[in-house]
Specification:
The strands form 2 sheets. An 8-stranded mixed sheet has the order 1-2-3-4-5-7-6-8, with helices on both faces. Strands 10-9-11-16-15-12-13-14 form an 8-stranded parallel sheet, sandwiched between helices. Helix 8 crosses helix 16 and helix 11 runs parallel beside helix 12. It is built from 16 helices and 16 strands. The protein has 2 domains: 223 residues, Aminopeptidase; 284 residues, Histone deacetylase domain (Arginase, Chain A), CATH 3.40.800. By secondary structure, the protein is of the alpha/beta class.
Length: 598
């Protein structure tokens, strides 16, 4: 068994190891290659387009994460083609089957990137160009392989002109039109050839040679050599697959035990229907793959929450039983150093409001939400680019030693603390209400940037935090930013502020982004006052995705059931599109001018 995945950079350990294995394979299997080219692969992955092409690396790994095969592709977004640089498998790999599966992935992604075709070089099978019969047989086998996908050498050009009389085996230029049934025009083909020879081979190809080859492309559109090894297809060629491959799907981790926490009291809007509504809308897309939650030890919780608070929450919820839930009603304003002995009365010692109940299952549901957030975080650490913890109860109002706002454990902070052990992390809280929990937990930590866009504390819960001048302290000074907004906010106004927050994420040199996704910014949400629509959530998702960072999304608020699912789906469609889409929609920074107004 093996899996194929794309490696975007070398930030995380699994990706660094994969790139190192690829470099070793190239060194072993392609002797004589300029070592600078493969040594520059990490830089090419980190800095798209700065080397003339956008590098895209795919690896096929077994269950031990050993790379068995890889493909390196260079994407040229302006001209619109993909260049297959290498397609190589190790000595013990599965041969044609593995190579074919890997090439299918290259074709599918090229199509998703908007490329009109995949171009590459194949050594010739013509005796006039290759005198060695053994080499010709190997070259023919490779050309036969690609004919299976409809790819063939360009005919009637001077591309295979030797650079010198001693140049044996000058390569063909091969084009795979990705099953579109349309070949490039003369103008497009000339632009592509000039880019290939002028950028890739600028050190060996003189300018007059490049122009001579470019000028030889006279057919409009270009012609391909007839099928030489396989029967021409009688129907349309097989198109590249369009459904997202597994590693590009969003890892979806759902709290499978959230139903046990159901407070059946009038006005309690944090209800189980929130999860089922979102889940139903997500199922209408092909962007998600469900991942079962794993159990994680309590040390992840006590890494961000006070141990005494965690112990209290577990004990009081077990004691409440299945009867009426307990609501905090007495608060230690005058003496917070002496908590009451009675557990039910002590609720106010650990809470910031009077409407967040403690019942028999609150701890159990919150504990499972933590497992979901950590499972999704580890999916990101394992190579997933996007992951979503669809959980309730929410968590972003839970501080180090208090609960409130329907929140008991801070799922976002717990996941961020785990991720911060491996990379630079930023938390972007997009809930209508201030992310006071993350602010409190990371107040004196500089390794995790905490940002929150929310209703001004003068008008919105939790009222006492979320002001713009709250910037952190000690090592965390400057690592906390609040963007409190006025009572009425539309999509355009929101995007203006979101752009400022995303620039701050970039300046932090963020390597993994954690999004606290509140959908209570929606029009007519019962807990908010803003006017965002589904179109705005698409645009917001695109702006976040334009950073092209590994991103963990954790569900927070959002209580208007009628629009909740559609808004969630809209956000993820935008996020996925900008994360994986062509550079013109992804790599360039998306500003409010790039999206439709509300």
């Amino acid at each position: 068994m093996f899996r194929i995945r794309r490696v975007y950079d070398t930030i995380l350990s699994p990706d660094r190891v994969a790139v190192e294995q690829v470099q070793a394979m190239v060194d072993e299997r392609i002797p004589g290659l300029d070592p600078k080219e493969i040594a520059s692969l990490p830089a090419r992955l980190r800095q798209p387009l700065e080397h003339g092409f956008r590098a895209v690396l795919y690896v096929a790994e077994d269950h031990r994460r050993t790379v068995k095969a890889f493909a390196l592709v260079y994407h040229e977004p302006d001209i619109g083609f993909a260049w297959l640089e290498y397609l190589a498998s190790g000595a013990t790999a599965g041969g044609r089957g593995l190579g074919g599966t890997l090439y299918e992935r290259v074709r599918a992604d090229a199509r998703e990137l908007g490329a009109w075709g995949v171009l590459f070089e194949c050594l010739p099978d013509d005796p006039a160009l290759c005198r060695d019969p053994a080499k010709r047989r190997k070259n023919a086998a490779r050309l036969r392989f690609y004919e299976g996908f409809g790819a063939r050498p360009v005919a009637g050009t001077a591309y295979e002109t030797p650079l010198s009389p001693d140049d044996d085996e000058p390569p063909y230029l091969v084009i795979d039109d990705l099953g579109r049934g349309a070949l490039p025009s003369r103008r497009t083909a000339r632009a592509a050839v000039r880019a290939i020879l002028g950028r890739k081979y600028r050190d060996v190809c003189p300018p007059d040679y490049i122009e001579r080859v470019v000028a030889s492309f006279t057919d409009d559109p270009v012609r391909l050599r007839p099928f030489a090894y396989l029967e021409p297809p009688t129907g349309p060629l097989r198109p590249a697959a369009s459904a997202p491959p597994p590693d590009r799907r969003i890892a979806l981790v759902v709290n499978d035990r959230h139903l046990i926490h159901h407070v059946r009291e009038r006005g309690y809007v944090e209800s189980p229907v929130r999860i089922s509504t979102i889940r139903r809308e997500l199922a209408a897309t092909d962007l998600f793959e469900e991942v079962a939650p794993r159990r994680f030890p309590d040390r992840h919780i006590t890494a961000v929450h006070d141990r005494g608070y965690v112990s209290y929450l577990e004990r009081v919820c077990a004691r409440v039983g299945d009867g009426r839930p307990v609501y905090p009603y007495v608060f230690p304003i005058r003496n917070n150093a002496r908590p009451p002995k009675e557990l039910e009365v002590r609720a106010g010692y650990y809470c910031i409001d009077t409407f967040t109940p403690l019942d028999h299952n609150a701890y159990l549901a919150a504990r499972r939400a933590v497992d979901c957030a950590l499972t999704a975080a580890h999916a990101v650490l394992g190579g997933r680019r996007l992951a979503y913890a669809l959980v309730r109860p929410p968590g972003h109002h839970a501080e180090r030693r208090v609960f409130g706002g329907f929140c008991y454990f801070n799922n976002v902070a717990i996941a961020a603390a785990e991720l911060a052990r491996h990379a630079r992390v930023a938390i972007l809280d997009l809930d209508y209400h201030h992310g006071n929990g993350q602010q409190d937990i990371f107040w004196e930590r500089g390794d995790v940037l905490t940002l929150s866009i929310h209703g001004h504390p003068n008008i919105a819960y939790p009222y006492f935090t979320g002001f713009a001048d709250e910037r952190g302290a000690g090592d965390g000074l400057g690592a906390n930013r609040n963007y409190p907004l006025e009572e009425r906010v539309d999509g355009e106004r929101y995007r203006q502020v979101l752009e400022r927050a995303l620039h701050r994420v970039e300046r932090h040199r963020t390597e993994i982004l954690v999004v606290a996704l509140g959908l209570d910014t929606s029009r007519k949400d019962p807990t908010g006052t803003w006017d965002l629509t589904a179109r705005d959530f698409v645009a917001n998702g695109r702006m976040v995705g334009s950073l092209r960072l590994p991103t963990l999304v954790v569900q927070e608020g959002g209580y208007r059931v009628r629009s909740l699912g559609v808004n969630a789906r809209s956000f993820f469609v935008g996020l996925w599109d900008a994360t994986f889409g062509p550079p013109e929609r992804g790599i360039k920074k998306i500003s409010p001018r790039d999206v439709a107004p509300s």
